[in-house]
Amino acid sequence: MTELLYLPDADDVTEFTATVTDATDEYVVLDGTYFYPEGGGQPADIGVIEWDGGRAEIDNVRKDHGEVRHEIGRLEGDVPAADTPVEGRIDAERRRALARMHTAQHVVSRVVLDEFGASTAGNQIHTDRSRIDFEPADFDDDDLERIQRLTNEALANDYSVRKENRAREDVEREVDEGRSLLHLISDSVDPLRVVEIDGFDMCPCGGTHVDSLGAVGHVDTLGRISKGKDTERVEFTLHEP
Ligand SMILES: [Zn+2]
Question: What whole-number distance in Å separates Cα of residue 62 and Cα of residue 72?
Answer without folding.
Answer: 11
